[in-house]
Specification:
Distance between the termini: 33 Å
Number of strands: 5
Helix content: 40-55%
Strand content: 15-25%
Number of helices: 4
CATH class: Alpha Beta
CATH topology: Transcription Regulator spoIIAA
Order of helices and strands: EEHEHEHEH
Structural class: alpha/beta
Number of domains: 1
Largest sheet: 5 strands, mixed
Length: about 150
Amino acid sequence: MIMSDERKQPDQPGKDGSDKDRPGRNEVRLERDGILRIYYRGRQTAEGIKALGEESDAIAEALQERGEPVIILVDVADLGAFGQPEIAAWRRLMATRSFERMAIVHLNPALQVVLHFLVKMSNRKDKVEAFDDEVKAIDWLQEAATGQQD
């Protein structure tokens, strides 16, 4: 479990200027390159994760109806505190979401452990990959869009 420093003001940026200590300000958007980008920012709640999942699922469904691949880039650079209810919410999303590939960028070691657990539980090892480099993540995602294999 990742916990924020509770001595900080609840709606102030972290020491590094990030949104990690602020309430969740998550975002989902479809870019012109066809990549569905999801940004987790700030302290997470299960309800916020569920809402973001519903929003991203609606976009994914529209892509599928047009015959386009669902490729997802998840950025967790500014992900803040979360607990067991939030991990359970992510697990439900991972198990039910339909996509060709999902790349997750900016993982710290603790998040890598959580991701490994989520991927293992969802049985999607071949579709989810963690990257340190966003350019490499985008290249990997676009291989799926063009039908290339690893």
